[in-house]
Amino acid sequence: MKDKNSLIEGPILKSLIALAVPIIFANILQTAYQLTDTFWVGRLGTAAIAAVSISFPIIFLIISLGGGLAMAGTILVAQYKGKENKKKMDHITSQTLLMVLIISITLATIGYFLSPIFIKLMGAEKIVFSSAVPYMKISFIGMIFVFTFMVFQSLMRGAGDVKTPMYIVLGTVLLNLILDPLFIFGYGFIPAYGVSGAAIATIGTQGLAAIIGLLILLRGKHNIQLHLSDLTLDYKLIKKMIKIGFPASIEQSARALGMSAMTFLVAKFGTLTLAAYGIGGRILSFIIIPALGISMATSTLVGQNIGAGKMDRAERIARLSSLWGFLILTVVGIITFIFAKQISAIFIPGEFATINASALFIKIMALTFGFIGIQMAMNGAFRGSGNTMISMMLSIISLWVLRFPIAYILSHHTSLKEVGIWVSFPLANLIAAIITIIWFMAGTWKKKKLMGDQKLTKEVLKETIIEEGLN
Questions:
Q1: What is the pLDDT of residues 137-179, one digit of tens each?
Q2: Which residues contact 275 (CB under 8 A, 6 or more apart)?
Q3: For the chain, which residues make up each domain, given as ranges?
Q4: What burial letters (b/e) apply to 397-432, b meaning 16+ CB within 10 Å?
């Protein structure tokens, strides 16, 4: 009851901060996996950085295909938490884990065997190809661990517990800091695996995180519990979760495909530009973490308040989180703009041409970070209400209607060349934020209903069809 009151009653900003800060810190730590890889691999040179950079969008794409379904668990757990229905929360926990595990094994197998084809399609040069393929294959082997912990985080977040996953990630990231250089450069009886060593270290620590997460769910001392006896497919619930989660999967997949397409454009300009894009992309993924934390906190708060029947409060949460998302990322963007070159130099010291290229990319992006904050906060509200379809459409518009076409036109049909790709980021950020605000103000997102009997399930399907037709 205490957790419930803290999220559906009292000051909104206090609840938002209480949820967002641990999520932000956990996401910073998660990103530290990638940044640590980039830091140590950067000591191997520009070609090694390019190998990791060209692999990341494909790996992210495969994760996204199944990861969106975990979002359904977050949404449903949050709304049933607001309704104080623990039995439903536990059942959703078991079914979400079972569904995502099956999907993760399937996608990991496909990704492993198709890794060489993926790298070829990305247009990697020969020197990059030889390192990128084993790095990607090893990463796919650990996919089941990534998915398992992803589900654990999502379910715990829906229940309002954001600190436990944060502590687990903290421990595994610290371990990764030790294992990365050990496997990349070798020591004693451990051979130097080079770029592949970064993947070996990462999946080892992610496997540990997944095991700990499962043990916590089985013990059931954190608001939510996994029951082994409940691990038989509930087809009705699975169908409902797919209806909710599939648009989120499409959204994340569209984002990952957008990254892959942008990487394909960048690769045409050579290894140096690809490495610069990889560094800039990693910095971007780190910088937007505050917005991602606010977005996830907003999803939980909006979901629990809708479950408690407090729609007006849910709307106030969305507006407040959008304002703070804009302010925080604007400040972060200004700081990043000022120190762009110094930040780039951390990842690839001594490579002055690459440093200058990545610093230019970062500076061009930085001053529009605040608009990313608005978009992500409002998308969090859409997801928390169950309107994953709206969030999906906005993501597709941002990446495929705006960013990629602008990047292609400016890089191929103007004298800007690769700089045209950099310019597409701020233009897309600004336009996408305006579209998101208009969609939010229209208020259609407040009409979705997820909880209830079969009649309400049909209503969800009907509303989804209406949304698809209108949008």
A1: 998 988 889 889 988 988 888 888 888 988 998 898 889 888 9
A2: 46, 49, 50, 53, 348, 351, 354, 357, 358
A3: 2-470
A4: bbbeebbbebbbebbeeeeeebbbbbbbbbebbebb
Distance CA 347, CA 291 (A): 23
Is residue 40 very low, low, confident or very high in pLDDT (cuts 50, 70, 90)? confident
pLDDT, tens digit, 9 for 90 and up, residues 382-396: 988 888 888 889 988
Alpha-carbon gap, residue 62 to 80, rounded angstroms: 29
Amino acid at the residue 145: F
340 neighbors 366 (Cβ within 8 angstroms):
yes
Residue 452 binned pLDDT confidence (cut-offs 50, 70, 90): low
Q: What span, in angstroms and rounded, lies between the C-alpha atoms of 398 and 384? A: 20
pLDDT digits (tens, 9 = 90+) for 13-31: 888 998 899 888 887 877 7
How large is the average pLDDT for residues 79-96? 85
**Which whole-number Å values give the CA distances from 145 to 32, 53, 75, 292, 373, in the listed order?**
17, 22, 22, 22, 29
CA angle 215, 219, 222 (to 5 degrees): 100
- pLDDT of 467 over the 50 cut: no
Report pTM.
0.73
